[in-house]
Amino acid sequence: MIVGKVIGSVVATRKNDKLIGSKFLIVEPFQKMEGEQGRFVAIDNVGAGIGEIVLVAKGSAARIGCNMEDSPIDAAIIGIVDDGVGLE
């Protein structure tokens, strides 16, 4: 899992049929957690908003975590962090 901050959103009117109705947010991982990767887009089905700190699952865990095993999802927001001591 990765912890990051939601910094924006993406609107796509044309997309894969299995993604219709999905909300996409741009997540910036905290520096200690990003490794080689910077910002990325994640599907959101927990109701996160811009400025919130979130937990993100990637790969197959993302698809399983949001019950969309047959969808082309690489990252999913699976939680909103209430208290993140030592994250920044």
From TrEMBL:
InterPro entries: EutN_CcmL (IPR004992), EutN_CcmL_sf (IPR036677)
Stored CDD domains: EutN_CcmL (cd01614)
Entry's Gene Ontology cellular component terms: carboxysome
Keywords: Bacterial microcompartment, Carboxysome
Pfam family, one: EutN_CcmL
Protein's cellular compartments: Carboxysome
Record protein name field: Ethanolamine utilization protein EutN
Organism ancestry: Bacteria, Bacillati, Bacillota, Clostridia, Lachnospirales
